[in-house]
Design goal:
The protein has 400 residues and is mainly α. It has 2 domains: 147 residues, no CATH class; 153 residues, 2-Layer Sandwich (Zincin-like), CATH 3.30.2010.10. Helices cover 59% and strands 4% of the residues. The chain has 12 helices and 4 strands, in the order ααβαβββααααααααα. A 4-stranded mixed sheet has the order 1-2-4-3, sandwiched between helices. A hairpin with a 7-residue loop joins strand 3 and strand 4. Helix 1 crosses helix 2, helix 3 packs across helix 5 and helix 9 packs antiparallel against helix 11. The longest helix is centred in the N-terminal third of the chain and has 42 residues.
Length: 400
């Protein structure tokens, strides 16, 4: 499969990936069914490994139609009700132009300017700074914005975030993420069923010791090891599918926002305000994967679905002509946190003597000067390599 370059080829690539994800879903489900059948045979019969594998294959083939129907029903339920589940988890509510005229007009103007169907607009009561798009069809698509983001960002920055989410919808990223979450859910469900069956069978079932000499003996232990290994592989692949989706979709969504708004600086300043302030405590990891930023640190960054904000900003500076102001303070967000921190530290600091560098109860504020804004691509900086295509692919939308 050719790798996607540019916004429009990325849309086609995502459609192909969605089909491959569905195929991968059924493959992993059948693999789980075979592993479960092998474990059940090993715990029911004292036979050779070859006989157990053959028996498991026969049982898996018989169970395949039921597994197919069950998986199809799972997909249909997720397709029909996933938006309701997201709203239930996040508390998102749909708003009209009369309720949120500022936000509604910004989104409507972006849609009209490019002939994009207007998605539903939803508000989530949360002080965190974030937004996400959801849905699997044109009738379901919705953009949800937190109240914290509305209060902290100006109109140009909010418009840039909305453009980012509209690009996710237009590129098919939202549909692909939902399918990936379905895959992970199905595999987790089957894995839990297997382990429940395993522990139940160990305490309640007994192996048949028929005199059939063709069965042989001694293969049960190896069969159990193979079954557990297959389940582990299926679970790992589901995690890879869910978390290792190409980070390029975030770079492309940033680029799509610039294409819609013609304002790279607004996207950069929005990212700088959102960074490290986007954790939605009421949301699940699946919802966080859909957000503008999904902060990860340390070992967890290995499974991060979003590239670091620094890299995204650097790409906008180098390839969209934006300017990076460096980390930005958000009074509406940081003010409350600073007040709480000051109150917590005040009692302990008042009891400490003054040190050689000034009073010890200085409120915890550093006495060193703040770091000047970063001006990537400023005059005097080394020029970018013109042959470097950047995270969005070669200029001109070429494919290979």
């Amino acid at each position: 499969m050719a790798e996607a370059y540019g916004l429009y080829t990325h849309i086609q690539s995502n459609r192909r990936r969605s089909i491959l994800l569905l195929i991968g879903l059924f493959f992993l489900v059948y693999l789980m069914v075979f592993a479960g059948a092998l474990a059940a045979a090993a715990m029911s019969y004292d036979a050779s490994l070859q006989w157990l594998l053959q028996r498991a294959w026969i049982d898996a083939v018989k169970a395949a139609p039921f597994a197919t129907i069950g998986t199809a029903l799972w997909i249909l339920i997720a397709y029909k009700f996933h938006q309701s589940l997201i709203d239930m988890v996040t508390g998102g509510r749909e708003v009209t132009r009369q309720e949120e005229p500022r936000l509604y007009n910004l989104l409507e103007n972006l849609c009209i300017s490019r002939g994009i169907p207007m998605p539903k607009l939803k508000i989530m009561e949360d002080t965190s700074l974030n937004a996400f798009a959801s849905g699997m069809s044109e009738k379901q698509y919705a953009v949800t914005v937190t109240t914290g983001l509305l209060n902290a960002l100006d109109d140009a920055e909010v418009e840039a975030v909305l453009g980012h989410e509209l690009t996710h919808i237009r590129n098919g990223d939202v549909r692909m993420l939902v399918i990936a979450v379905i895959i992970a859910g199905v595999i987790s469900f089957f894995a839990e069923m297997f382990f429940r069956m395993f522990f139940y069978s160990r305490s309640g079932w007994g192996r048949s010791s028929s005199g059939d000499s063709d069965r042989g003996k001694g293969g049960a232990g190896f069969a159990i090891v193979i079954a557990v290994a297959l389940i582990a592989v299926a679970w790992f692949l589901s995690v890879v599918i869910r978390f290792a989706l190409s980070r390029r979709r975030e770079f492309l969504a940033d680029a799509g926002s610039v294409e819609l708004t013609k304002n790279p600086d607004a996207m950069i300043s929005a990212l700088r305000k959102i960074e490290n302030r986007g954790e939605l405590h009421a949301a699940t990891s699946a919802v966080m994967e859909m957000c503008v930023d999904n902060p990860r640190e340390g070992f967890a960054d290995l499974f991060a679905t979003h590239p670091p904000v620094d890299k995204r900003v650097d790409a906008l500076v180098r390839f969209a002509g934006g300017h990076d102001p460096g980390p930005l303070a958000v009074p509406q967000y940081d003010g409350e946190a600073q007040e709480q921190a000051d109150e917590t530290q005040q009692g302990a600091q008042e009891a400490l003597p003054d040190g050689p560098f000034g009073p010890s109860n200085a409120g915890g504020k550093p006495f060193l000067p703040s770091r000047p804004p970063i001006e990537l691509g400023a005059p005097g900086a080394p020029p970018a390599n013109p042959s470097d295509p950047g995270p969005w692919g070669p200029h001109g939308g070429s494919t290979r």
